Amino acid sequence: SINLHAAASPIQWVGTDFNPAQAGFAQQLAVAAGSGAKLYDDAFAEFAQRSDLPDFDFIGLHGIWSWISDDNRRVIVDFIRRKLKVGGVLYISYNTQPGWAAMVPLRELLTEHAQVLGAHGVGIVSRIDAALDFAQQLLATQPAYARANPQVTERLKRIQEQNRHYLAHEYFNRDWHPMSVARMGEWLASAKLQYACSAHGLDSIDALHLTAQQQALLARIPDPMLRQLVRDFCVNQQFRRDYWVKGARKLGALEQAEALRAQKVILVTHRPDVSLKVTGALGEANMSEAVYTPILDLLADHKPKSLAQIEQAVKDKGVAFAQVVQAATVLTGAGHLAPVQDEQAITRAKKQTDKLNAHLCLKARGSNDISFLASPVTGGGVAVNRFQQLFLLSMAQNKKQPAEWAQAVWQTIAAQGQKLVKEGKALETAEENIAELTQQAQTFAHKQLPILKALQIA
């Protein structure tokens, strides 16, 4: 992801990953894009002591904090204190309480089984499978723990369906420490950071997550950290994605409204596929057709529009600016809209994203490892699966029609002895594979291609 963002933005990106194979691959992508991203395989302590690093406007840690030791946390907090600029923003994600409270004992059982009874010569995947099987056997005996925590049985079922390499990181790491937001605040206080807001837009829509009684209770709590802690109890939060700021200053109402009106967004979903439903902690909620339909219809051409433009276009439908802001927040949180960079940033990034996307589409000939391409319009990644990348590669080779794209893709995968799978069954004949690829290519041309053109990917 750091390469997608480095290519798609005019920002200088720097990062580290202790795994040299991952760092080497990331460096290869940075060279392909010409983004100038500086990527290392340093441990945190080594990285924090580098003398060639700038002071940072932004620092991001995703999938790190909960899976490292306190010693490494102290290194990171000291780095943030020294290297994040005044006014700079920290993004951090972490497992949190109380959502993980019931799972902590089961996780300890899983890791203990893998360490004590697992055969180390057979690898981590086999040890994970054995530990999960044992946990299933234990829960089948109806222990008092399972009766007191009935959600654990369902959680274990979901875990058993997940990728084993993901589970190795998520559950079987040496360090695994869910942390409350209040405790996080204590850790970050020494770096002079203040909590700003959730990085997940839907979290700001209280009606999706909190009852009226819960909202009233939270409104009476003056301390922001205690308020967030109580909110986590209300929704049984298990994973947080937060923004923290060094020297946060709240905008006045006028400045905030001006900044919001200037923000551009773009529809990144095929308009007929947008469901007017959204899910929060309270379950599924319906979006107001009177508010959302005119906004979505306006954005259906997939051209960037500012919130001010949307406000002017829908005001005669009785939609107020506050409703436009909330709709934009909900639709962005649901993945239907994306924020748009300014024209200068788009122009600067386009050459880099073109190079990176061409490189990734070529890699897609033999692999489906990377299912994203970079957009200079949004400044980040957009989901584009392997076959869609190969359709784009065919277009770059001057093939005009979906049937031609399908033929080209079939030649590529057939040469590697690969076949498509449909409804769980492999398609055996060339005719079946080409027919399915043609259908996918036609759908791609109708639905995804106009969006990818608007995002300056195609």
Keywords:
458 residues, alpha+beta, three-stranded antiparallel sheet, 51% helix
Molecular structure report:
With 458 residues, this protein is an alpha+beta fold. The chain has helices at 2-8, 20-33, 44-48, 70-83, 103-116, 124-140, 144-148, 151-160, 164-170, 181-189, 212-219, 224-235, 253-262, 289-299, 307-314, 321-333, 343-363, 386-396, 402-414, 430-454, and strands spanning 14-16, 38-40, 56-61, 84-95, 193-198, 239-246, 264-267, 277-280, 283-286, 305-306, 337-340, 372-375, 380-383, 421-422, 425-426. The strands form six sheets. The protein has a four-stranded mixed β-sheet. Strands 10-7-11 form a three-stranded antiparallel β-sheet. Strands 1-2 form a two-stranded parallel sheet. A hairpin with a 4-residue loop joins strand 12 and strand 13.
Brief account:
The chain is α+β, with helices and mostly antiparallel strands. It has helices spanning 2-8, 20-33, 44-48, 70-83, 103-116, 124-140, 144-148, 151-160, 164-170, 181-189, 212-219, 224-235, 253-262, 289-299, 307-314, 321-333, 343-363, 386-396, 402-414, 430-454, and strands at 14-16, 38-40, 56-61, 84-95, 193-198, 239-246, 264-267, 277-280, 283-286, 305-306, 337-340, 372-375, 380-383, 421-422, 425-426.
**Structural class, from secondary structure content?**
alpha+beta
How many beta-strand elements? 15
Largest sheet composition: 4 strands, mixed
Low-confidence stretches: none
Work out the helicity level: 40-55%
Q: For the residues shown, what is the average pLDDT?
A: 94
Computed Rg: 24 Å
Coarse morphology: globular
What is the number of helices?
20
Distance between the termini: 19 Å
